Amino acid sequence: MPIIAAFNSKGGSAKSTALIALADALARREATVSVIDTDPQRTIAHWREKAVSSPIRVVEETNSANIHRLIREESSRSAWVFIDMAGFTSDMRTPIISRADLVIIPMQPSPEDARLAAAAFAYIATDEETLGRPIERRVLWARTTPNFVTRVERKIRDEVEENNIPAFTTHLHERSAYKAMMVGTTLAELDPAEYNGIDKAIINSDLLAAELIENVMEIQNRKKENAA
């Protein structure tokens, strides 16, 4: 039961969109999925209130005293557990990161996003010291344009690669279908007559989910090897 957390304090980083897209892609594979929404903005909880036909289970939690129990309960209920984390200074940060198999840091390729992503990595490094073990994390490039890279984007991506910061190969592209989905539906339920690129968004999210599965399997195999 992999536990995947998404961490970034910047509004508009596509943190909630990324989690819903991944959860939706896994649900299409008939996996059971729970999402724990700890963000005061309630983006995913609000989405779930509208997306009544989705099999994705969403629960809210704002009390750090309950988070370990809730993660344990949802792990016993679902094959995948995603956690939409609150800001950097939330008292739930370390408890959630301590339970996560992987922390995803969504960021757009902009200087401000890069600055806050660096801050997220710094907080995770602090938690590594507290926990006394490494924390798996990956940057997820979000809201990028397929087959088009600006100079600023190339510079930021090059800096990430030069600093050996792990990142997903698959990006979460800028798609109108993702914005429409966030109103309260799944990608497959969107009307092609109203929104363009639904099929491309589904392919994009499926590729991202496949890479996530591969990453989680690699992480779990490393843990087994280290424990042997």
UniProtKB/TrEMBL annotation:
> Which Pfam families did the record assign?
VirC1 (PF07015)
Please name the InterPro entries in this protein's record: DNA_Partitioning_ATPase (IPR050678), P-loop_NTPase (IPR027417), VirC1 (IPR009744)
Source species, domain of life: Bacteria
PANTHER family referenced in this protein's UniProt entry, alphabetically: COBQ_COBB_MIND_PARA NUCLEOTIDE BINDING DOMAIN-CONTAINING PROTEIN (PTHR13696:SF96), P-LOOP CONTAINING NUCLEOSIDE TRIPHOSPHATE HYDROLASE (PTHR13696)
The identity of this protein, by name, is ATPase
Q: Which organism is it from?
A: Mesorhizobium denitrificans
Question: What does the organism's lineage look like at the top?
Answer: Bacteria, Pseudomonadati, Pseudomonadota, Alphaproteobacteria, Hyphomicrobiales
